[in-house]
Design goal:
The complex is a heterodimer of chains A (137) and B (274).
Chain A lengths: L1 H15 L19 E13 L5 E8 L5 E8 L2 H4 L14 E8 L6 E8 L5 E3 L13
Parallel strand pairs in A: 3-5
Antiparallel strand pairs in A: 1-2, 1-4, 2-3, 4-5, 5-6
Chain B lengths: L1 H18 L3 E4 L11 H5 L15 E4 L14 H9 L33 E7 L2 E6 L5 E5 L24 E7 L3 E7 L19 E8 L4 E9 L8 E10 L12 H17 L4
Parallel strand pairs in B: 5-6
Antiparallel strand pairs in B: 2-3, 2-10, 3-4, 4-5, 6-7, 7-8, 8-9, 9-10
The chains are: A mainly beta (137), B alpha+beta (274).
């Protein structure tokens, strides 16, 4: 039984923490840059179109029905507008899928990778360090 | 063996079921992200014709950040200042002491090395005005033949005070290169995002060469003997003519930044919000 449990944990762990490298970028010191967290059926509570950081606040329910409040940061409006975002791209009540790089310190915050809207529209966050000293700004 | 196989199937099924619900971790598609600036979005616009004579007037698109050359050896004073600077690259934003964390001005010359998505030139009698998209600031570049002020930051009553964006004078070298010399940049500003320092003795030379109608090359030379062992060219960057002659509003807003620090940066660094 112990070996079965071990096998399950190994399989689960292996499949659920597949990682990819994320180039270090300016301002990423708080985040785990080697893996992304995916949250489905997230509900937007607030979208802050702000300089120098846009912010997305949203709620996610875990499989026990408990609600967790999350905050994700994205690039500045000047950066993400070029990628199809605008001030009204996300509104309270929208149900979305969120990918983000979580804090190293186990808080419910992270750097956004992308947001997928209910209609399938994908909003990517601004590019990062693979082009030099790019940033969230 | 059969039990083992069953266990594997059940385990895998369990993983797949869990992953379709609320919370999962997986490998994302690479974030190619698209353009980071209007400059990148414009791409190769071609020369657009010859450069007009002695004229930089208009809106220009640059990259988010200029590619920087390595700095030379720092003096002991420079090394000590550098040691005190906690950058956003090395520290969580909440723990850094980068002046721009609280929306302080980038200052000059950092504003020509970072957040350079857009610049504008216009002229007035006796001066050229250079403006930046980021924070909508402007610099006055006197072209009336005056000399740069001396003893900026000195204690005598007639000594000019340091400025975030210094004191600048400009002149044309030939018909296509505008040379700007600047002194008096406030020591509170950093030279670059890496936290390299500068002193009040900093002297900067910018050379704006309009290669053709659509392209502007900028070379920036740093001379600060208090901080660096020798003068150096910190960057040679390029700007592209913006066809619509317009760009985004891009301001660091203190109240929005405070909200960001409270909701994101502090919890991200210290785990307070869970």
């Amino acid at each position: 039984m112990q070996s079965k449990l071990l096998l399950f944990l190994t399989l689960f762990g292996g499949l659920s923490t597949i990682c990819r490298p994320l180039n270090a970028h300016h301002g990423s010191a708080s985040y785990k840059t080697d893996k992304v967290v995916v949250m489905k059926q997230a509900t937007v509570t607030k979208f802050v179109w702000a300089n120098p950081h846009s912010m997305l606040l949203f709620d996610v329910k875990d499989d026990h029905g408990n609600t967790a409040h999350w905050a994700g940061e994205a690039g500045s409006p000047s950066a993400i507008r070029l990628l199809g975002w605008n001030k009204n791209s996300l509104q309270a009540g929208d149900v979305i899928t969120v990918q983000l790089y979580p804090s190293k310190f186990e808080s419910n915050v992270g750097r956004l990778e992308e947001v997928v809207l209910a209609d399938g529209t994908t909003l990517k966050d601004s590019p990062r360090g693979d082009r030099g000293v790019l940033s969230r700004y | 063996m059969r039990n083992l196989l069953q266990c594997c199937v059940v385990s895998l099924a369990g993983v797949l079921v869990v992953s379709t619900f609320v919370f999962a971790q997986s490998s994302p598609k690479p974030n190619f992200g698209g353009p980071g600036s209007l400059n990148e979005k414009l791409g190769d616009t071609g020369p657009g014709g010859p450069a007009p004579r002695r004229d930089l007037t208009g809106f220009w698109a640059g990259k988010v950040a200029a590619k920087l050359n390595p700095v030379p050896a720092m003096t002991p004073w420079g090394q000590e200042q550098f040691r005190l600077h906690k950058t956003n690259g090395e520290y969580p934003v909440a723990d850094s002491n980068d002046p721009i964390k609280g929306c302080d001005p980038l200052g000059f010359p950092r504003n020509m090395l970072f957040m350079t998505r857009g610049i504008v030139f216009t002229t007035m009698p006796g001066k050229t005005i250079e403006m930046s998209e980021y924070n909508r600031i402007w610099r006055e570049i006197w072209t009336d033949g005056r000399e740069l002020p001396k003893n900026v930051g000195g204690r005598s009553a007639d000594a000019p005070d340091p400025r975030w964006y210094g004191y600048s004078v400009g002149r044309w070298e030939g018909d296509y290169t505008f040379v700007v010399n600047t002194v008096g940049s406030d020591e509170r500003t950093w030279l670059d995002n890496a936290g390299h320092p500068h002193s009040i003795d900093l002297r900067v030379e910018e050379r704006y060469t309009r290669v053709n109608h659509n392209h502007l090359e900028v070379t920036i030379k740093i001379d600060d003997p208090k901080a660096y062992a020798q003068p150096f060219v910190i960057t040679k960057s390029e700007f592209t003519w913006i066809p619509e002659q317009d760009f985004e509003e891009e301001l660091c807003v203190p109240s929005e930044q405070a909200e960001y620090l409270k909701l994101v940066a502090e919890p991200a660094a210290h785990g307070k919000s869970k």
